[in-house]
Amino acid sequence: MIDAHIHLDMYEVEDQEKILQDLNHENVEALIAVSNQIESAKRNLELARLDERVKPAIGWHPEQLLPSEDEVEELLKMLEEHKGQIVAVGEVGLPYYMRKEYGWIEMQPYLELLETFVKKAAILDKPVVLHAIYEDADYVCDLLEKHDVKKAHFHWFKGSKHTLDRMMRNGYLISVTPDCLYEEEIHRLIEQYPLKQLMVETDGPWPFEDKFKGSITHPWMIHESVKTIAELKQMNVDDVYGILLENTKRFYEI
């Protein structure tokens, strides 16, 4: 299986080493290592150089202050220079949780930044990894449709049935985290969304509750998610493994 979304650079070095050492034993083939900003991207590129199972993506996480013009230019330059090493543009998107925390944020600059990355993904013919939930996903769908970007991955998605239907029609993929074991909202999403458009992720080092409470988030947890998906889809777990793995390999061209 493949962890379709992890912030590997954010782990302590000893935890990074432990995770990479564990991958074969835990039957995890690869990690899609998304970036938050420039230094994050540099660390992920270095991790990928040291271990080919790390598949890096370069982007600017939206739940933070906007980058300067120079930072945007550097990120675009990095995307161009490392287009042979990266598997995607990401993580990019819109600041949903910042808006909830601060009450109001001027959205236009974030939309413009996202459009810059969407256009770059189209030029490079790379998938785009998206942080866009609830109503934000509709704005993102508008941009993807505008620039005819087909390969979009909405990670840890949550949203309305209307938005899900739109994303299904467009062929976008979503991924679920280990919270699918205990969140009813995610159960409904899994039941509604086609298995051919699903992947599994950890979003590590983000921590989880229930049976994972107090544990460092580790790629082995995706196996628990696969079992939950199989139960909710009422399918054989081995068949679900095969489909999810093929989805991820095909999408990221691994």
TrEMBL record:
Keyword GTP-binding appears in the UniProt entry: no
GO MF annotations, alphabetized: hydrolase activity, acting on ester bonds; metal ion binding
CDD domains listed in its UniProt record: TatD_DNAse
Positions of a divalent metal cation 2 binding: 131, 155
UniProt keyword Magnesium present: no
Keywords: Hydrolase, Metal-binding
One Pfam family it belongs to: TatD_DNase
Gene3D superfamilies: Metal-dependent hydrolases
Residues that hold a divalent metal cation 1 according to the record: 5, 7, 91, 203
Family label: Belongs to the metallo-dependent hydrolases superfamily. TatD-type hydrolase family.
Name of the protein: DNAase
